[in-house]
Specification:
alpha+beta, 6 strands, six-stranded mixed beta sheet, about 35% helix
């Protein structure tokens, strides 16, 4: 049976990792292989090293673009799918360091929960990149 309180605490922990800590703390929340779906593009991270490199590259792009990484979880919702899985809807807000107005988006993360562990298996980031590329069309090339 899905422990919703435990799942919600895991989502909050992921938000704290984004707020305080870099790629490693975010990747601590992933199971492997981890898959990211974004606007029809699929990225598969086979292990921790793959994920560390991919997440760090993404965060570095935010820094190089002038946006910075003041990205905070605004809210979350856990929708059980089965006794051991759920969809976690997380709303993120960015507060750009370049003075541009901030915005928010919703990503969905697939949570796997066992008695001994829980981790995200995948994410769907269409909203994140749709909002980001709508404002900064060259973001991926910075």
């Amino acid at each position: 049976m899905m422990d919703l309180e435990r799942a919600a605490a895991f989502c909050r922990s992921y938000g704290e990792a984004m707020a305080t800590g870099g790629a490693g703390r975010l990747v601590d929340h992933y199971g492997f292989p981890y898959v990211s779906f974004t606007l029809g593009h699929v990225s598969r991270m086979e292990d921790r090293a793959d994920a560390d490199a991919a997440v760090q590259a993404h965060l570095d792009r935010f820094e190089r673009s002038g946006l910075g990484v003041d990205i905070r979880m605004a809210e979350h919702r856990v929708e059980p799918v089965s006794g051991g899985s759920a969809l976690c809807h997380i709303r993120w807000e960015i507060h750009p360091q370049n003075g541009a107005p901030g915005w928010s988006w919703d990503n969905v993360y697939g949570l796997r929960q066992t008695p001994d562990a829980q981790y995200f298996e995948f994410n769907v980031s269409d909203n994140e990149f749709g909002e980001l590329l709508g404002r900064y069309p060259d973001f991926m090339s910075v």
